[in-house]
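The instructor's notes for this session suggest beginning with a concrete chain rather than abstract definitions. Hand out the sequence below and ask the class to guess, before any prediction is shown, which regions might be ordered.
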Amino acid sequence: MIAIIDYDAGNIRSVEKALLALGQTPVITRDPAVLFAAEKVILPGVGAFGDAMGRIREYGLEEVIVRIVDSGVPFLGICLGLQLLFESSQESPGVPGLGILKGKILRIPEGTNAEGAPLKIPHIGWNSLHFPQEKKRGRLFEGLPAEPYVYFVHSYYLKAEEDIVAARTYYGVPIDAAVEKDNVFACQFHPEKSSAVGLQILENFVRLDREGK
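After discussion, reveal the predicted structure:
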């Protein structure tokens, strides 16, 4: 069973719909007993870092998430769900994140694109990924082309420790678009909105064994 953590995030239903398209029967829940029993767990997210962490703590989910990760169950963060896995964000100074992974969540700086036009923030649209360790591609990206396109919606981006970066993109600055550490996986982009490429990424996650192998 795949559990989607319910803390009133905006993209829960679209994640559910994508998993249903893969033949899965996900459960949307904040019940600790159900979450602990799941074979895989997804933390979705759209919105503000501080508000999201407030709801996670209000619903008593912080310790639950940490225990799930520590148990070795494959765990996937999506968009804001990626950012919440880190220690803090410039979006909400003074609000601690889950602190499961190491890195910084920073505001996308103002700048221009290759044609000299101002970058629009939030970053909304399709960008290609590249893999910093092509010979050891992250497990979520098996079977994908060299530079797959995926869909982003965000104003803040991740700068992570190098050894956990699985994929990057570029939007004015290099953006760590996906990370992987043991059984923890996270994507800044939305696989559930990234057409066939996104479905392949989710299917790769679904196929993982315990411990993320």
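Then share the key points. The CA atoms of residues 1 and 26 lie 6 Å apart. The first strand starts at residue 2 and ends at 5.
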